[in-house]
Amino acid sequence: MTEQLTQSDIIALVETKMKHRPKIVEMFKRCYENTLETTIHRHDDGTVFMLTGDIPAMWLRDSVNQLRPYLIPAAQDAGLREIIEGVLRTQYQSILRDPYANAFNEFENFRGHQTDLTEMSGWIWERKYEVDSLCYPLQLAYLYWKNTGETRHFTPEFKQAAELILQTWRTEQRHEELSTYTFVRENSGETDRLPGPVGYTGMTWSGFRPSDDACKYGYLVPSNLFAIVVLGYLLEINEKFYGDDAFAGEVRALRDDIRQGIEKYAIIEDAEFGKVYAYEVDGLGGVNLMDDANVPSLLSLPYLDYCSKDDPIYLNTRRMILSRRNPYYYEGTYAKGIGSPHTPPDYIWHIALSIQGITALEEAEKLEILDMFERTDAGTNLVHEGFHKDNPSEYTREWFSWSNAMFVEFVLSLCGLEIAMR
């Protein structure tokens, strides 16, 4: 478990450690308070619905990332524990309704992308299948246990959701033969169209990236690396709370399949950078060398607990994706960093800057990124999705809770406060 601090303790610590950076302190306090003040909807049954921000829906991925900074004070705060457990219950229920959906409605109100050609329901805002959407609730359940000692959330419903996740990932190992998932958004561009054919690799297929943009090739490497991590978490949870030997055997077998697929298809020998991870592959010879700002990303692998910050393949990959070899890496007057095809060219993402800072080895790089945050909030004391590298007043998403939470995590890491991962 992490050091037991309250939210007030944490704010006081940041104020002390960052007293020479009053702008950062103000940004930290505004971002830290924003999520709990603006995104939480409590229900009478104890569940909690968590808005992503300026879109009235709950993403499995975003809701986990929005809560991560509160795992540290949750050990001392019963109210925070109620919120986290309530969100976990909503996540379990959402997965059991449809493991292929990425975003859900608060009620069965038929809002969102109901005209998409896929198996929509009134509960679903969007049904873009993303491997990482199923990884994140497993991550939150595990990290909540490790940071607070609480175990009430390991319910029969959690086990049912975990079994359905495992079944879905198994099916999507052989997407061409076994999957019934389809998705068409009429009158849309390439970012809403499913990738082409894949061959079997052992990895599990994903239709979309964590940006909600379509994959170019169906095996999204950072999401499969994340799946390896959370399958390890599942083994530990099962051993401690469920004791299901058959389930454990299935989890191990899937994890081994994915790991072998990574080693055979996703580690590429690059002439300039050496061994690096591809972003996507198709098992048929297609390889996509890039990185996207959204997490899981290749840049985020140490943050996701997959490898150490000084892992050789990771460092090679990091050098590649923080260079012009990555088509979504931009350098400008105010900042340099990774963007996304989800936003216009030359837009750098605050999420990617936070991840770069958290995973950096050198203090100078961390401080350089802190300087970039001071320059690029457009006077709002909040952070955004993407901003123009030469004009931060041009940005996307006025209210993006995940991005605010990632900035909070970055500042906490600079102050020596990090979420317990084991």
TrEMBL record:
Transmembrane portions of the chain: none
Gene3D superfamilies, per database record: 1.50.10.10
Domain of life of the native organism: Bacteria
SUPFAM superfamilies per record: Six-hairpin glycosidases
SMART domains: DUF1237
UniProt cross-references to Pfam families, sorted A to Z: Glyco_hydro_125 (PF06824)
InterPro entries membership: 6-hairpin_glycosidase_sf (IPR008928), 6hp_glycosidase-like_sf (IPR012341), GH125 (IPR008313)
Protein name from the UniProt record: Metal-independent alpha-mannosidase
